[in-house]
Write a structure and sequence with these properties.
With 555 residues, this protein is α/β, with parallel strands linked by helices. Helix 12 (302-312) crosses helix 13. It has a 7-stranded mixed beta sheet with strand order 12-25-26-27-23-24-13, with helices on one face. A 7-stranded mixed beta sheet has the order 21-18-19-20-14-17-22, with no helix packed on it. It folds into 3 domains: 11-257, HUPs (Rossmann fold, 3-Layer(aba) Sandwich); 269-339 and 467-552, Ribosomal Protein L25, Chain P (Beta Barrel); 345-457, Ribosomal Protein L25, Chain P. Helices cover 26% and strands 24% of the residues. Residues 1-6 have low confidence and may be disordered. Bound molecules: adenosine-5'-triphosphate and magnesium ion (MG). The site of adenosine-5'-triphosphate has 15 residues, from helix 3, strand 8 and strand 10.
Length: 555
């Protein structure tokens, strides 16, 4: 049993299992460390499922830590959305923490490095510092301020903190080695002056630690055992370890895994922000966005996102995952849970001539054949219905099992009907389909002996409610817009939103709840949108029943 469990472990789980076995740790502590400068996206979901998943599997806990060391891009709106998204995904953090809570501790850490002769205040401009860095193939040069005395450095650093110097005039740098093979070890900047308002510490500070002098130190303060980040931080690991060693603080360890991206979309907060700001989408939670809030509004169940992240797993090679796989998990969840209902998106009138005008009956229809506890609902039937225009052809064709003159179909949950005629308006457009029904063919008590191949959905005209329906498609026309030549905005799919302003829906849907997902039979899965109100119902299409994108693309 142990063996088969071990086989399914990913490489980080293997490391952890070993660390627990050897007694290196009794429990593990992980963290999810978002920078609150945007909404979380599907890539973050992968990191969330990994970090929180590890402490579900192994003893320990996960912190939520906001990496809020950059005052100019961070906002409380983002903090709130991040918390909501993690909870919605189904995870609980042990502590809600902020790197900014550690500002005075980080300041003390910097002072202790100065005292050890391991940091100095540099008056070089950013251009000069860049020049001093050298290149990967040539060594750098020392700053002329590198050999300032410890006393001088302590004095200047405290005056930086007191706001005596303008932005950009001084930095605090680690004193390591300007000839180091790792460029990030060539006297990296630890602190910069930035007289900016911070979303939590307000104007208390005018110097802010750089990411590299905040992240590892925050991990250490929280006694994070396994600090998991993405591959681009591999070169940062050396400084991460250096600082922990020199500061003699808790030895957190960094591990890297490859970013997970999804095709036909973008997973960069900066670019997603641009889509919002330039109004290419309605908002961060536009249902076309790859954000967690967008997927929630689109009707994706959290379990589908978790299953998707588990399936794609983690690895060391960056890859782009097919969005079709995510949609597969969405369908899998919704198939189990969504009530089947009827909605007509492109309505045409159908009249049953032998059903008494003005009378109606309630038919009892099963909500979800996949769910025994799903129950039944009443759906009113009458002689005037709406059906889909595409379910009718003016002339019978081979293998056409829907309506055409002389053809018979079953109306879902109701009767078999036979088309006797159709009408056109003055413009020559189809305006009405005329049918007769077979009274003995009622669903559940059919004694007609007639077998038909097609079943179509319908709603009763006098009972129907109307709704706006929003159909979504890929946000981008190409698989990897970020990798294309030129601006990624050029690759936006201009047909990604189609609005049907008036569809007819069965009356049971008029009391749909926000976030409730339905299968509109034969049409896909739909969810009530947050902008819906009793005067105007709005449904978003979550996903079609089957993938027809590949077909459209001619693949
Ligand atoms: P972005 O480039 O979108 O701004 P980021 O890495 O700067 O992403 P953070 O807020 O720093 O965003 O990310 C929080 C955590 O999520 C980090 O540990 C980061 O490595 C991880 N993460 C971000 N994007 C992905 C992704 N595409 N796949 C896996 N993990 C990711
Ligand atoms: Mg980041």
């Amino acid at each position: 049993m142990m063996d088969s469990a071990a086989e399914s472990l990913n490489f980080i789980e293997e490391i952890i299992e070993n660390d627990l076995k050897t007694g290196k740790y009794k429990q593990i502590v992980t963290r999810f460390p978002p920078e609150p400068n945007g909404y979380l996206h599907i890539g973050h979901a992968s990191s969330i499922c990994l970090n929180f998943g590890l402490t579900k599997k192994f003893p320990g806990y996960t912190n939520l830590r906001f990496d809020d060391t950059n005052p100019s891009t961070e906002e409380t709106e983002y903090v709130d959305s991040i918390k909501e998204d993690i909870q919605w995904l189904g995870f609980e953090w042990k502590n809600e923490l902020y790197a900014s809570d550690y500002f005075s501790q980080l300041y003390d850490f910097a002072v202790s490095l100065i005292k050890k002769g391991l940091a100095y205040v540099d008056d070089s401009t950013s251009e000069e510092i860049a020049k001093q860095k050298g290149t990967p193939t040539s060594t750098g040069t020392n700053s002329i301020y590198r050999d300032r005395t410890i006393e001088k450095n302590l004095d200047l650093f405290s005056r930086m903190k007191n706001g005596e110097f303008p932005d950009g005039s001084k930095t605090l740098r680690a004193k390591i080695d300007m000839a180091h093979t790792n460029m990030l070890m060539r006297d990296p900047i630890l602190y910069r002056i930035k007289k900016a308002h911070h979303h939590r510490t307000s104007d208390t500070w005018c110097i802010y630690p750089m990411y590299d002098f905040a992240h590892g130190q925050s991990d250490s303060i929280e006694h994070i055992t396994h600090s998991i980040c993405t591959m681009e931080f591999i070169p940062h690991r050396e400084f991460y370890d250096w600082a922990i060693e020199k500061l003699e603080i808790y030895p957190s360890q960094q591990y890297e895994f490859a970013r997970r991206n999804v095709n036909y979309t973008i997973t960069s907060k900066r670019k997603l922000l641009q889509l919002v700001q330039e109004k290419h989408v309605e908002s961060w939670d536009d249902p076309r966005m790859p954000t967690i809030s967008g997927m929630r509004r689109r009707g994706y169940p959290p379990a589908a996102i978790r299953n998707f992240c588990d399936r794609i797993g983690i690895g060391k090679r960056e890859n782009i995952v097919d969005i079709g796989l995510l949609e597969f998990f969405v369908r899998e969840e919704l198939n189990k849970s969504a009530a089947r209902v009827m909605a007509v998106l492109d309505p045409i009138q159908l009249t049953i001539t032998n059903y008494p005008d003005g009378s109606s009956e309630n038919l009892s229809i099963e909500n979800n054949p996949e769910d025994e506890a799903g129950g039944h609902r009443e759906v009113p039937f009458s002689n005037k219905l709406w059906i889909e225009r595409e379910d009718f052809k003016e002339e019978m064709e081979k293998k056409w099992f829907r309506l055409a003159p002389g053809a018979m179909v079953r109306l879902k949950g109701a009767y078999i009907i036979k088309c006797t005629d159709f009408k056109k308006n003055d413009q020559g457009e189809l305006s009405e389909i005329i049918c007769e029904y077979i009274p003995e063919s009622k669903s559940g008590s059919d004694v007609s002996g007639i077998h038909v191949k097609g079943t179509i959905h319908w709603v009763s005209q006098i009972h129907a409610a109307s709704a706006e329906i929003r159909l979504y498609d890929r946000l981008f026309k190409v698989e990897n817009p970020a990798a294309e030549e030129g601006d990624f905005l050029e690759y936006i799919n201009s047909h990604s939103l189609q609005i049907i302003s008036k569809a007819y829906i069965e009356p049971s849907l008029s009391i749909a709840q926000l976030g409730q997902t339905f299968q509109f039979i034969r049409k896909g899965y739909f969810v009530l949108d947050r902008n819906s109100c009793s005067d105007k119902l709005i449904f978003n299409r979550t996903v079609t029943l089957k993938d027809n994108w590949a077909k459209v693309q001619g693949k």
